């Protein structure tokens, strides 16, 4: 992984996980799950706007926005009964929201594998986490491309 492409918030989160013993990492993930922000009304009242992350066992939905300043905003919902997935969703929201399109797209695809949870959670859950990041990046790419195609000034 190229350290230059990891945004400071994600690097800090990764380092926080890696500084802990395996059992404590799960507790930290649980803390993150409790910090996942609620969806704003424009999405909670219109769940049809959100995209399901099929690779996740739990019903996880996400939506990204790219504002006029090329800043990404990430919205994710995951049920409280799925604290592992909800925790990783919270990590992504905290680590990606407010970054530029280029910074989000530069996040290494294997970021979920770098935070030291491989021994603590199933490979299926790790794949779900990777899929969540991949979907977010795909949506950001699509929004960037559609706004560029619409003739917006960059």
Automatic annotation (TrEMBL):
<feature type="domain" description="Fe-S metabolism associated">
    <location>
        <begin position="16"/>
        <end position="138"/>
    </location>
</feature>
<comment type="similarity">
    <text>Belongs to the SufE family.</text>
</comment>
<dbReference type="Pfam" id="PF02657">
    <property type="entry name" value="SufE"/>
</dbReference>
<protein>
    <submittedName>
        <fullName>Cysteine desulfuration protein SufE</fullName>
    </submittedName>
</protein>
<dbReference type="InterPro" id="IPR003808">
    <property type="entry name" value="Fe-S_metab-assoc_dom"/>
</dbReference>
């Amino acid at each position: 992984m190229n350290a230059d492409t990891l945004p400071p918030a994600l690097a800090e989160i990764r380092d926080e996980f890696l500084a802990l013993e395996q059992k404590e990492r799960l507790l930290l993930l649980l803390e993150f799950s409790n910090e996942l922000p609620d969806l704003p009304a424009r999405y909670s009242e219109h769940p049809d706007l959100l995209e399901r992350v099929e690779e996740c066992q739990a019903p996880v939905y996400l939506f990204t926005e790219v504002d006029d300043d090329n800043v990404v905003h990430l919205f994710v919902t995951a049920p409280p009964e799925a604290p592992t997935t909800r925790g990783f969703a919270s990590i992504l929201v905290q680590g990606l929201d407010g970054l530029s399109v280029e910074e989000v797209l530069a996040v290494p695809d294997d970021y979920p594998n770098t935070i030291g949870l491989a021994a603590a959670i199933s490979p299926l859950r790790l794949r779900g986490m990777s899929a969540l990041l991949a979907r977010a990046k795909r949506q950001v790419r699509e929004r960037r491309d559609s706004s560029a195609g619409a003739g917006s000034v960059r």
